[in-house]
Write a structure and sequence with these properties.
The chain is an alpha+beta fold and 372 residues long. The chain has nine helices and 13 strands. α3 (59-75) packs antiparallel against α9.
């Protein structure tokens, strides 16, 4: 995963330059594709398409895009502007005839961006909103060591002061979280191309229960909170994530303890998205660095034979994360106590995003445990 200098994009004779003279280059990334040849660009695009989708996108990207969509809906940022009389017309109006008639037009797994054109060695996609007109350009280029790789360039034209402020605000998240995760997923898509099951659906089903009275008593009893103001539990069958061979089962019987599951879910230290949510938005006081007594900064408060409870608190709420691995299932429980009325304003909108992402978090953890 490598961020490249802008000149790597601007100095190559891409056709996109004919359309984006009034755009600026925001980022250029390399997607490594070992063993690729000069004619493999369509193969990579197909693999990217197969690996994309709401349930398959990287978890950090899913969270940030979900938060971004909610904020954009509230502030009216994302109204599409693509009509002929709109102040931000589509670049399709600038396409020369040969690009308009080019046969291939997929979204390359980058929806909601819409395809502009697709050739044998490059393609371009765009999205225009009230904040910014953005173009993603994918170019196929020699990697300098005898193969080829994908060059992914982000081109933007902010719409006024609001657009410039918006681009400045999202730059750290885009460069530290979203695009690194996106690049890793595209590199994995190349490695997985043609592998049986690589184009499968969203993965095994995840059950959920929301509300303290809906939570099974064996899970609810593991919380240490004197009062529960918010609770949910998501459950994944570990048998459904494994093959038929008993040696590949990821249940507790093969050493996948509740702590192992907790570390697969959250990591030893919080990643940038977790820091944004837990420290930045919820103000949780988390430990720094790796420690046998913490998981992603949360203190390991108590554990049993098949469960573990993590605890953290801020000045306005207290939280428990409970992970239980038993009976061929792994469960993730979130329990919160509101210690100040601010919590009732902060957590409900975040909980909507949390509930959308929790199933994918469990499926990703299952893949990690299975690999371990």
């Amino acid at each position: 995963m490598t961020r490249l200098p802008d000149r790597v994009h601007t100095e190559r004779p891409w056709r996109i330059h004919e359309l984006t003279g009034d755009f600026r280059v925001e980022d250029v990334w390399a997607v490594r594709t070992p063993g690729a040849g000069p004619d493999d660009f369509p193969t990579l695009l197909a693999a990217m398409q197969a690996s994309a989708g709401p349930a398959k996108d990287p978890l950090p990207s899913r969270f940030l895009f979900a938060v971004r969509r909610r904020i954009g809906a509230l502030l009216g940022w994302d109204k599409p502007l693509t009509g002929a009389r709109d102040p931000v017309p589509s670049l399709r109006g600038r396409l020369p005839r040969d690009l308009r008639e080019a046969p291939g037009r997929s979204d390359a797994g980058l929806a909601p961006l819409a395809s502009l054109y697709e050739l044998d060695d490059e393609c371009a996609l765009e999205r225009a909103t009230t904040t910014v007109h953005a173009v993603i350009h994918l170019g196929w280029a020699p990697d300098g060591i005898g193969g080829h790789e994908l060059r992914m360039a982000v081109l933007v034209k902010p719409n006024g002061l609001r657009g410039r402020l918006y681009m400045a605000a999202i730059a750290p998240f885009r460069r530290l979280v979203v695009f690194p995760a996106l690049v890793r997923q595209r590199e994995q898509a190349w490695r997985d191309r043609g592998r049986p099951g690589a184009e499968g659906g969203g993965g095994p089903a995840v059950g959920r229960a929301v509300g303290a009275h809906e939570i099974p008593e064996p899970i609810r009893a593991l919380s240490s909170l004197s009062r529960i103001d918010y609770a949910d539990v998501f459950t994944l069958s570990t048998d459904a994530t494994a093959g038929t061979d008993a040696d590949t089962n990821v249940g507790a019987g093969t050493g996948a303890t509740a702590e192992l599951w907790a570390r697969a879910l959250f990591g030893d230290v919080p990643d940038p998205v977790e820091r944004l949510i837990w420290r930045g938005l919820l103000g949780l006081r988390l430990s720094r660095g790796r420690s046998p007594g913490t998981v992603a900064g949360w203190r390991i408060a108590e554990r049993g034979e098949d469960w573990i409870r993590l605890e953290a608190a801020s000045w306005f709420l207290t939280g428990n994360l409970v992970v239980r691995a038993a009976d061929g299932q792994v469960s993730l429980g979130t329990f919160l106590r509101y210690d100040h009325r601010l919590a009732r304003a902060v957590w409900p909108p975040l909980s909507t995003v949390h509930r959308r992402l929790a199933p994918g978090l469990l499926r990703d953890a299952a893949a990690t445990v299975r690999a371990a």
